[in-house]
Amino acid sequence: MSTTVAAVRERSVSCSLDNYLVLPDHTMDARIAAARRELGARAVVLGHHYQRDEVIRFADFRGDSYKLAQAAGRTNAAYIVFCGVHFMAESADILAHMGQQVILPDLNAGCSMADMAEIGQVESCWEQLMALDLTDDHGRGITPLTYMNSTAAIKSFCGERGGLVCTSSNAAAAFKWAFARNQKILFLPDQHLGRNTAFAMGIPLEECVVWDPFMVQGGVTVEKLRSARVILWKGHCSVHQRFLPEHVDKVRTRFPGIQVIVHPECRWEVCQKADGIGSTERLIKMIADAPEGSKFAVGTEIHLVNRMGKDFAKEGKTVITLDESGCLCTTMFRISPQHLCWALENLTEDNVVNRIQVPEEVKYWSRVALDRMLEIG
Ligand code: SF4
Q: Which atom of ligand 1 is nearest to the CA of 88?
């Protein structure tokens, strides 16, 4: 261990996380920076856009989940420290090279949307669809398609049955790919992204049904299941679903001329009212490409909106949240500087904490589903 790291760590009494969680915030920057210096190219830190400022400032790469997983796989770092949520760290492990280890600084950083589609529930849904002769177990009849924001088990389920993974930016291309093979799609786990994508492709809302895993036969009649083109899983993002159509009306009244741009995880009614819809990366680009003096109300996670507000103010642009109460992703927020410091300082001693490891078989079929996504571009 370098003397710098040893010196700043004098106050640490052990490698136990509990001892880190009580450390004062103002001591974190120096310790994290020292651990980063000591680790050098052996570690790469990834920061999702929704992370808080005091964590994301240490990220080597910032981005959405897929961009980050790809970025990590392109480095030779032995340790990939993912400041994000569980499914993102799983994706990084799926795409990592042999010998790379993925670390999630707080194992409690999950994703409420990903958790809404448990593998047992999805398998049960599929069996019921097979019993109705709507598909076979190889996906001849229905293409299972999952959003990146899902567990590795769900990605693997889709890969094994002829399906694929999509992001919010390539969902339309994934739908086209899926419809080229089958008449129907089972879309997991975000009903809003699925509905918004289908509608934008010209599929009427009546041809989208919602499968509720807590109801008999998903709460859908056989007739509706037979005529549906898209079976949407009843999942949502607790952050984006909070935006309502009245928020759009209200912000337009208060700030005439403001442009409303939202993430496609928002409700269909909100997306219909918006001036623009896009993935996290796309929302940032829309603002970056706008002329000086532009004003935006953005329907996405509050840490990103606030950061854009500060960054784009320098270019004479105004960025505010669509909903004044602001929507925080509480699970992303779990990664604190203390958790990051704990993970990094342990790594300086080659002590890997909170490793995320996807089982080999799950990894294999998840990669198949991800490779199909890469085929569609
Ligand atoms: S913002 Fe929504 S989808 Fe993203 S991690 Fe948080 S709960 Fe999950």
A: 5
